[in-house]
Design brief:
This protein has 2 domains: 171 residues, Rossmann fold; 183 residues, Dehydroquinate synthase-like - alpha domain (Dehydroquinate synthase-like, alpha domain, Up-down Bundle), CATH 1.20.1090. Helices cover 48% and strands 21% of the residues. It is globular. The chain contains 15 helices and 11 strands. By secondary structure, the protein is of the alpha/beta class. The protein binds nicotinamide-adenine-dinucleotide (NAD).
Length: 361
């Protein structure tokens, strides 16, 4: 099994494996690590992945584990606190204990909510994450941020909790819809803007292959994003010195849109519009030239905001942005760009600036 990345945060080691058909290896790994103590655990899975979850259960049971299968609703519905409380109850009644394992099998929503559940149950049990969407493979599976939504606002409840193992298995991507691939590219472009002009160009050039779910191209993109992300997370795991915060480029407007649409817009797509918003704002505040603005917008020229705009309340988006947890005190804070590779903080964004950008988006 190929180990592609290993890091230690808070005295915990996380190993990222890259392998198709990881099942048998995972069973052995868990057998070695957890079988001394009443070998048991949970598979918390996106309900669309029932067959995969069942197959994994069979494998673990062959190795003597007692396994509780818990389906999660697809999408943002899994990040609801009442849903998660029901999961915690099921675990308690089944006899899950401190030395049990907790596997998440799903995209970013299942990873965010499952990670939170694993972090809370008996002050934290071992978490194994198997991301199954491209968005989770390029971004959400790494870094240990777990999150639930609250009152239609994104990621208000959460913890920072690192998984023990992460399995990258590209066989999951063949069942993803075009929309999911298109959405995942949003976070990929974000990495390009934050870190690396050449990466941005490459992604732009390979876009068609990526949208056709070409595994070779995605493998390269996933490994680049993983190392970009961990570079910042290792310097600022808890997100309190401003280093990790750069990963939120595009996210204030994105979370506003998600909140304003009652969590109906796919996250990655919302991030694309968030990047467009940040580029326009950076230009309006004199941080980038007209030439830079047009060059940056060009990378995202495939994405059109017009249809979405008609069906979403502008004021709801603004109100949701005002509740973003990155704001300190009164004004709305948005991350912008001074150039590709240089993220800056733009403070006290005004409603009239928001209105102007909304009109031109
Ligand atoms: N923790 C972090 O650092 C972080 C970073 C970025 C995004 N996020 C969060 O991630 C979430 C978005 O993640 P996502 O885009 O993976 O969405 P998702 O988990 O909601 O999955 C999107 C859709 O794909 C389906 N799906 C999952 N795996 C599939 C497969 N293999 N084949 C077919 N369909 C499949 C799901 O049922 C769902 O309908 C958001 O809530 C966002 O806030 C978290």
């Amino acid at each position: 099994m190929k180990k592609v990345y290993r890091f230690s945060l808070e005295r915990k080691k996380t190993t990222v494996f890259l392998k198709k058909n990881y099942k048998e290896y995972l069973s052995e790994l868990l057998l070695n690590k957890f079988s001394d103590n009443n070998f048991s655990g949970v598979i918390y899975f996106d309900k669309k992945l029932k067959t995969r979850a069942n197959l994994l259960k069979v494998d673990l049971e062959k190795n003597g584990a007692k396994v509780l299968l818990i389906p999660a609703p697809s999408g943002e519905k899994s990040k609801d606190i009442d849903q998660c409380v029901l999961v915690l109850k099921k675990m308690f009644r089944f006899g899950i204990h401190r030395k049990s394992f907790f596997i998440t099998l799903g995209g970013g929503s299942v990873g965010d909510s499952g990670g939170w559940i694993a972090s809370q149950y008996q002050r934290g049990i071992a978490w194994i994450n198997i991301p199954t969407t491209l968005l989770s493979l390029v971004d959400s599976a790494y870094g240990g941020k777990t999150a639930l939504n609250f009152d239609d606002c994104k990621n208000i409840i959460g913890s920072i909790y690192q998984p023990e193992f992460i399995f990258i298995d590209l066989s999951f991507i063949c069942t993803l819809s075009y929309r999911e691939c298109y959405s995942a590219l949003g976070e990929v472009f974000k990495y390009g803007f934050i870190f690396d002009y050449n990466f941005l160009i490459k992604v732009f050039e390979k876009k068609d292959k990526l949208l056709k779910r070409n595994e070779t191209e995605w493998r390269k993109v996933i490994l680049s994003c993983l190392s970009y992300k961990m570079d910042l997370v290792l310097k600022d795991e808890k997100d309190d010195s401003g280093i990790r915060e750069q990963l939120n480029l595009g996210h204030t407007f994105a979370h506003g849109l998600e909140g304003g649409s009652n969590l109906k817009i796919p996250h990655g797509l919302a991030v694309v519009y968030g990047l467009l918003f940040s580029i326009h704002l950076s230009y309006l505040r004199g941080k980038i030239s007209l030439f830079q603005r047009d060059e940056y917008l060009n990378f995202l020229s495939d994405y059109s905001f017009n249809d979405l705009k008609k069906n979403i309340s502008k004021n709801k988006v603004w109100n949701s942005m005002k509740k973003d947890k990155k704001n300190k005190g009164q004004g709305v804070k948005v991350l912008g760009l001074a150039r590709i590779g240089k993220v800056i903080s733009i403070e006290s964004v005004q409603k009239k600036e928001f209105d102007l950008i909304w009109r031109i988006l």
